[in-house]
Design a protein that fits this description.
Strands 3-2-1-4-5 form a 5-stranded antiparallel sheet, with no helix packed on it. It starts with a helix and ends with a strand. 24% of the residues are buried. The chain has helices spanning 2-18, 63-76, 83-109; strands at 44-55, 113-121, 126-131, 142-146, 149-152. It is α+β, with helices and mostly antiparallel strands and 153 residues long. The protein has one domain (2-152).
């Protein structure tokens, strides 16, 4: 019975903390351009207005938080007895999830330069796309945005 409660507490903590992990880089560029970073939407054709190096905001999948939460909860479950053990399990799960998420963020941004590419689309809209490389892209190039990435054409 006690193992069932502990397992339920672990799963609940993992589910709650997994929802805390963010995949949405809400606004990479704050330079007056409309920021519409979207991995799945095709935006069309346009002209590059500017390219700026930017420090990439770490995006996490939530796996670090889940694994960290499980490891922390298992470690916390080894402490105390009764109500203290349950509290230690929950505290270990929360702390482990926070640490796991931070480790995943650090792993993703280590040595990674990101670029904010501002594109004026043919329909007059402005889009800002953040990607890890610019290859042969320059201001003034005609480009195509496909699946959240900018390509020359």
């Amino acid at each position: 019975m006690k193992a069932t409660r502990t397992l339920a507490a672990l799963l609940a903590a993992s589910a709650i903390l997994g929802g805390c992990a963010s995949n949405n880089p809400s606004s990479y560029a704050d330079d007056g351009y409309r920021s519409n970073y979207n991995n799945t939407a095709s935006a069309g054709y346009g002209t590059i207005e500017s390219i700026q190096p930017t420090s990439g905001q770490a995006r996490t999948s939530g796996a670090g938080a889940i694994v960290g939460g499980l490891v922390g909860a298992l470690a916390g479950n080894q402490v105390g007895s009764g109500g203290g053990r349950t509290a230690a399990t929950v505290a270990g799960g929360v702390g482990g999830a926070l640490i796991g998420n931070r480790v995943e963020q650090n792993r993703d941004t280590e040595g990674q330069q990101m670029y904010s590419i501002n594109v004026r689309l043919d329909n007059g809209e402005y889009r800002t796309v953040v990607q890890d490389s610019v290859y042969d892209l320059r201001s003034g190039n005609r480009v195509r945005i496909v699946d959240g990435r900018v390509y020359r054409y």
